[in-house]
């Protein structure tokens, strides 16, 4: 009997176009999206200085492109070496995690999920793209932070497969910011990744956005409600259903975060 093959994650250096496209989006957010520019510019104070009094978006994008092109040239070997290190370390837990996650979410990996890509990037924000099965890892991340981030982002891939089964009428655009479906998906990892079966693979404290860590509903932390739904669930469908009813009920408070 052949051993079961699980999805694999390939770590590779992000291209300049990949880096620039995402960073420019984060530096110039659309209406309704969170503004991440301060976080990015705190990592690159020289770029912050160059953009200080530039208001025209086309000029800001041009300055940003030139800055990261030069920065990437200087750090090309470091990023390449980090990709090799991350690959080596992630491979130690890949199969265990890919095996346990379907048991936790109570859904099998789709047949299409054979390979995922982790782009080692200059971008300190770690976005994911559900359809193409890729996510970013900041090149200065520690191995420990890389593993926690990868587990979080990979969770999203299978989580939305489960979501589509339970809520088939959901438009896939709602899997991304600024929709409430996306917001819930960024709250639940704090409970799911605390699952004992996952913690046995890699003990860590799951992270979610600070906005949700600070938010209280009726004087009680939002994430405490999510954890209670998970701890008292009959099954994963029950957890997801109760969580969705809750965030819809408190949409106004959540959207203000």
Description:
- The structure is a single chain.
- The protein is an alpha/beta fold and 257 residues long.
- It contains 13 helices and 6 strands.
- It has helices spanning 16-27, 37-43, 45-51, 57-90, 94-105, 143-166, 180-185, 189-192, 196-199, 210-214, 222-231, 236-249, 251-256; strands at residues 8-13, 115-121, 128-129, 134-138, 216-217, 220-221.
- Strand 5 and strand 6 (220-221) form a beta hairpin.
- Helix 1 crosses helix 4, helix 5 (94-105) runs parallel beside helix 6 and helix 11 (222-231) packs antiparallel against helix 12.
- It is globular, with a radius of gyration of 19 Å.
- The model has no long low-confidence stretch (mean pLDDT 95).
Write the layout of secondary structure elements.
Layout: E1 8-13, H1 16-27, H2 37-43, H3 45-51, H4 57-90, H5 94-105, E2 115-121, E3 128-129, E4 134-138, H6 143-166, H7 180-185, H8 189-192, H9 196-199, H10 210-214, E5 216-217, E6 220-221, H11 222-231, H12 236-249, H13 251-256
Parallel strand pairs: 1-2, 2-4
Antiparallel strand pairs: 3-4, 5-6
Strand content: 5-15%
Strand order of the largest sheet: 1-2-4-3
Count of helical segments?
13
Radius of gyration: 19 Å
- Stretches where pLDDT is under 50 for at least 5 consecutive residues are none
What would the average pLDDT be, to the nearest integer? 95
What is the tally of beta strands? 6
Helix/strand order, N-terminal first: EHHHHHEEEHHHHHEEHHH
Main sheet properties: 4 strands, mixed
Range of helix content: 55-70%
